[in-house]
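Why should sequence recovery work at all? Because a backbone constrains its sequence more than one might expect. Tight turns favour small or flexible residues, buried strands favour hydrophobic ones, and helices have their own preferences. The token representation captures these environments compactly. In the example below, the structure is given first.
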């Protein structure tokens, strides 16, 4: 990390390091700000103006932001395109803060964990799928956390992978979590990439 880094940016880097692979919505006053690669991605995906911020690194950090009161609309767009978003809030009153305001991630939103009705399509379920391959069979679970609906099944036998693909086709999950052994299902992985939005 660069010498002379501002305390706020040092805090940002510390929090960001804990959430790799996610876009960090970092609360600054009335806005959620994004920096560096997150800012470049968000600016492109959301058609936002990319600006910069002096942060003690010798060059300005790429930056963009959205108003916190309308953030759900922006988050919905990102999540619908497969991104994961970590929401980092100010967890103390800025007026009472001594030094830098404390911040922490209060929620992670992924395609399969959306619960806000205005971020969902009421005509279809928003399934999160879990696939766990064992020695003799594979367990599948499809859960819609917005409606508490879930389905569990087991695939086994010579056509185990075909059964899995059929289940994926039926439930059309928005997000899939697998154990390492399930990565062996190459045809199911190919189906997921070509036929699902997960």
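From this structural description, the recovered sequence reads:
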């Amino acid at each position: 990390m660069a010498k002379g880094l501002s305390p706020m940016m040092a805090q940002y880097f510390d929090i960001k390091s804990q959430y790799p692979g996610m876009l960090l919505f970092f609360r600054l006053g009335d806005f959620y700000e994004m920096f560096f690669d997150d800012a470049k991605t968000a600016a492109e995906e959301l058609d936002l103006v990319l600006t910069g911020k002096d942060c003690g690194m010798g060059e300005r950090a790429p930056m963009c932001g959205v108003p916190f009161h309308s953030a759900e609309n922006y988050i919905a767009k990102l999540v619908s395109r497969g991104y994961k978003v970590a929401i980092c809030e100010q967890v103390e009153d800025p007026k009472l803060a001594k030094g830098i305001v404390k911040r922490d991630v209060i929620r992670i939103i992924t395609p399969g964990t959306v619960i806000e009705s205005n971020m969902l399509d009421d005509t279809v379920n928003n399934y999160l799928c879990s696939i766990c391959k064992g020695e003799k069979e594979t367990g599948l679970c499809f859960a819609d956390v917005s409606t508490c609906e879930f389905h569990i099944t087991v695939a086994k036998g010579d056509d185990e992978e075909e059964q899995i693909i059929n289940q994926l086709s039926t439930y059309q999950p928005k997000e899939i979590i697998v154990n390492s052994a399930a990565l062996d299902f190459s045809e199911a992985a190919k189906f997921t990439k070509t036929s699902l939005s997960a």
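A few observations help interpret the result. The chain has a mean pLDDT of 92.
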